[in-house]
Design goal:
This protein is of the alpha/beta class and 330 residues long. The chain folds into 2 domains: 99 residues; 166 residues, P-loop containing nucleotide triphosphate hydrolases (Rossmann fold). Helices cover 49% and strands 10% of the residues. It has a 5-stranded parallel sheet with strand order 2-3-4-1-5, sandwiched between helices. Helix 2 packs across helix 3, helix 4 crosses helix 5 and helix 5 runs antiparallel to helix 14. The radius of gyration is 23 Å and the shape is elongated. About 12% of the residues have low confidence.
């Protein structure tokens, strides 16, 4: 009775109801997320450019970014995901990951890898393709030095062809790092905090997730919705996981009285409130600094939000191969 098929059959569902990603068609764009999606999609099509998406844990930052990358035309864009598992305090991490993405032989020296990356980017320029590099868990970039290769790659594009944009995704301390990268500020388009969901957004998401599966027999009473929302205060990742855990617990007990199961197993199902809580004074300080950094970046010459960023093209006379520049700078 522990098989996933048994669990899905119990609820007459084709896949887990609340934590399943089934691509762009299944992505629920709440009103809270809509602004983030619209801004990021508009800005990330500009090259060369840098964008920062940050916020509290379990706010859907990675999911939003993943959705936005699926909205990029596959005829023009390639997407390279770099998920950082450990802290990085040095400047020699970008090109090795790009070399792996392009399938460059791992036995080459660092200089050879850098040159080969440049050659592959030259081929992309020739094919009129672009590359979006997404750095997830980017708050693990712990020093200014860690942004060195990114700055180099963007600066080299200024004297050659434009084909690369960066999207950094991470927790709140990411914006502090963004503030300190003065060389990147004129290229920064989107610096955006992912907000907490409203209760209406959460409730609408529940209805959307259930009704997406016509045969699903699941129903989440209002009392459960309110208690889960009060516990996590709009952190959608934690709320969705808790709902799925509740469904699993009901399956284990072979009971479709989900309210009864919730009341009996509440302490087991709900995570401690201090796990989800963020100090309000820290959060307010964060918001104040964000506002000042956004104003500073706008003064440095970032494009207006409504600007036609798709028309941003490199000058046709700028025909210096990227590979030759990388060879000189390796």
């Amino acid at each position: 009775m522990s098989d996933i098929k048994d669990y899905l059959e119990f609820w007459q569902a084709s896949h887990p109801v609340f934590i399943h990603w089934d691509g762009r068609e299944g992505f629920y764009k709440s009103r809270t997320l809509q602004e983030t999606v619209t801004r990021l999609l508009a800005y990330m099509r500009r090259t060369p450019s840098v964008h920062f998406i940050y916020g509290s844990p379990a706010m859907g930052k990675t999911t939003i970014t993943r959705y936005c990358t699926t909205e990029l035309s596959s005829h023009i864009w390639d997407v390279c995901w770099m998920s950082l598992a450990t802290n990085i305090d040095h400047d020699q991490w970008v090109f090795p990951k790009l070399a792996s993405f392009f399938g460059i032989h791992s036995g080459l020296s660092r200089k050879q890898k850098i040159y080969e990356v440049g050659r592959h980017l030259d081929l992309m320029v020739e094919d009129k393709r672009k590359l979006c590099i997404v750095v997830d868990s980017a708050d693990r970039l712990t020093t200014d030095l860690a942004f060195g290769e990114i700055d180099t790659l963007l600066q080299l594009q200024d004297i050659s062809k434009h084909c690369v944009s960066f999207v950094f995704v991470g927790r709140h301390k990411l914006y502090k790092m963004a503030q300190r990268q003065h060389s990147l500020q004129s290229r920064t388009g989107c610096l955006h905090e992912v907000d907490r969901w409203s209760y209406k957004d959460f409730s609408d998401f529940i209805g959307y997730a259930i009704h997406k599966q016509p045969k699903c027999t699941l129903d989440i009473p209002e009392q459960i919705r309110k208690e889960i929302y009060d516990q996590y205060q709009g952190q959608i990742g934690l709320m969705a996981s808790t709902l799925e855990n509740l469904c699993i617990e009901s399956f284990i007990q072979q009971s479709k009285d989900i309210l009864k199961v919730f009341q009996e197993q509440k302490q087991k199902i709900l995570m401690p409130s201090n796990f989800a809580k963020i100090d309000s004074s820290t959060h307010q300080k964060s918001m104040n600094k964000v506002q000042s950094s956004v104003q500073m970046i706008q003064k440095e010459g970032s494009p207006d939000y409504d600007r036609d960023i798709n028309s941003h093209q490199a000058n046709e006379s700028e025909n210096i191969p990227l590979s030759s520049l990388f060879k000189k700078n390796a």
